[in-house]
Amino acid sequence: METYLFESLDDTFKTEEDCVRFLTKRRWAGGFCCPNCDYHLFYIIKTRNLLECKECRTQISLTAGTVMHKSKLSLMLWFKAIRALIQDGQTYSIAAFASLLGVNYRTAKLMLEKLQLALCGQKSQTKSSIQQK
Ligand SMILES: [Zn+2]
């Protein structure tokens, strides 16, 4: 995961669509371009975080290659979690992380593990500790 791109995450992410727009921009800085036919217009399939080319109907996952891929959790939640870990630079116990995000312990543990794997080695100061037994 390219963590530097998330350093500018702020409170402007109020809806899933804001997150989708961010991810789209991140991936196609110069505007969408279909990998199959080079067409530039697309539909957003919000429920699955997919873009569909208006020309050839190729579907492209917005979250492929990120910790959010195939997750049932909302992008908003992931963005909030990433922001907490990267920007605040704090260390969280699983319980504290769960309460911050408003999710249960199991979900928080899973998210922390995935995010730590993704962030591992990218920035030494963002190491947040998972309390292992
Ligand atoms: Zn296409």
From TrEMBL:
Q: Which domain of life is it from?
A: Bacteria
- Every copy of the Transposase zinc-ribbon domain together lies at 14-59
Return any one Pfam family short name. Zn_ribbon_IS1595
The UniProt entry, under InterPro entries, shows:
Transposase_Zn_ribbon
Identify this protein by name.
Answer: Transposase zinc-ribbon domain-containing protein
Source species, please? Paenibacillus germinis
Record lineage = Bacteria, Bacillati, Bacillota, Bacilli, Bacillales
